[in-house]
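User: Please work through this fold.
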Amino acid sequence: MNELIPSNTALTPDQAFPFQKEIDGWNMESAVQELRPKVEQLRKVSLDVARDLWIAHEALAQRGGDRRSEDAQTFGFCDFLELVGLSKKTAYLWLKLYDPSGDRVLTPEEYALANAKSANPGIGELSPEVQSLQSKKEQLIAHAMATGERLYDQGWNELGCEKEYRTRVLNKKLSDIARELYDKKVKYNWKDNDYFSTTVLAQGKNYAKFTLQTKEQMIAQNEVLEMMSRYLESFEDPSVRMAAVCNIGLRIRSTINSMHEADLEFNSGAE
């Protein structure tokens, strides 16, 4: 448990802004060297977990399907998950991402494409001519993403690459900004550029009506909210808890404002 801090005691910088020293002293090279082996280990463990879950699910499904089995109707997959300490929601997400034929875990992009093909069986069955044009367009956009160079003499305008290219550049920038939520110092003085305060809060009712598009997004949002609740509940002193939630709020506000600036830059340069 965290040690209680009297309400009349001023918070130390470490208490009010956790990991600030680590953030200030962060170095790209050392961070890569430290995190890379962890990522590789995570990939291996992820595959092992997904494979074990799939085998267990199939084995228990087969046993449950045999009414003469001693285990029929008495022990199922959810019971197994309870014993290993994994939630049903997380386990079934692993099962969706696991490809048993290739013994690999799908990327989110591969999973989304598989879902799209399942919902629209005709997808991917394009004529060779159309596939060739799409391939050429992808090559031109990929070149521009890597170098910033638009190859007009190879059909850039004719294939309509500009709009897709600019959209991808914006999405990449927005993703980078979102990832920086944990890396950068929090900007709190936005003066007249505080889009969060002047627009988001003023139109709160509209944003409250926002609905998620996929089941995966809903699961991810619930996990974020649950994690935030657990994080805040870990503080026993109300003043420390308030400082923690304010820190989160400032980071979200900074991210929203940065994304708004990127969106304005994108729209101002649109052809």
User: Anything to note?
Assistant: Strands lie at 98-99, 104-105.
